[in-house]
TrEMBL record:
Gene3D superfamilies: Aspartate Aminotransferase, domain 1 (3.90.1150.10). Residues 1-46 form the Aminotransferase class I/classII large domain. This is Aspartate aminotransferase. The gene is aspC_3. It is an enzyme of class 2 (transferase). It comes from the Bacteria.
Length: 50
C-alpha cells in the first residue's frame, strides 16, 4: 500500500542518500512498511528534506 507524499525527485534522492529512506521517484511511500519503531525517524528524515 503506497501513499503519495508530494516530495520532489530531489527530496526523494536526499532521503535515500542521507537517511537510507527509500521511496519511489514520484514521491510514493510504502505505508505498509511503517511501524511504531520507524515512524519517528521517518518523519524526522522527511522534515529534514522539506
Amino acid at each position: 500500500m503506497f501513499s503519495f507524499s508530494g516530495l520532489t525527485k530531489e527530496q526523494v534522492l536526499r532521503l535515500r542518500e542521507e537517511f537510507g529512506v527509500y521511496a519511489v521517484a514520484s514521491g510514493r511511500v510504502n505505508v505498509a512498511g511503517m511501524t511504531p519503531d520507524n515512524m519517528a525517524p521517518l518523519c524526522e528524515a522527511i522534515v529534514a528534506v522539506l
